[in-house]
Amino acid sequence: MMKFAKLAILAAALAATPIAAQASAIEAGATVYGPEGNEVGKIASVIDGVATLDTGKHQVPLGLDSFGQGATGPTITVTKAQLNAMMDEQLAAAAAGRDAALVEGAALVSADAQPAGMIKSIDTDADIVVVERETGLVSLKREHFAVDANGALMALFTLAQIDSATVAN
Length: 169
Prior knowledge:
- By secondary structure, this protein is α+β, with helices and mostly antiparallel strands.
- It folds into 2 domains: 25-83, PRC-barrel domain (SH3 type barrels, Roll), CATH 2.30.30.240; 98-163, SH3 type barrels.
- The chain has 3 helices and 12 strands, in the order H-E-E-E-E-E-E-H-E-E-E-E-E-E-H.
- It has helices at residues 2-25, 80-101, 159-163, and strands at 31-33, 39-47, 50-54, 59-63, 68-69, 74-75, 107-109, 115-123, 128-133, 136-141, 145-147, 153-155.
- It has a 4-stranded antiparallel beta sheet with strand order 1-2-3-4.
- This is PRC-barrel domain-containing protein.
- It comes from Altererythrobacter litoralis.
């Protein structure tokens, strides 16, 4: 019985070792490899169970469960080219959704989900969007807008940040 207990403890310790090794390998600065053993990027940060992988082109947020452990370090199941292509597609789709919603007269919400006014005008040459607020006009760049999960046009700023933006004449 004592021998069985020692074996059970040893088995538990061995089973935990790969998990601990994997978790400790997923840290800022670690190099991540793809399925062919080629470098995909480096981990820029790990916060709340999400590792941000810097591919040199994109900062890609990945859950820690997305990583495996290979002989050379952390691994993922896609190559750098595949990951960059997926991010390019996601960003293009997000931009298309934003551009479809970003029209004169559209209602705007802030990043803190507060009504933030409406779109007064859009200068497509300069990518400047003028927002009409109760407090006056505010100019923001097109890149400062997105569509939220409900399909509403959203500024990527809180109300306080919007109000401190450049005031249009």
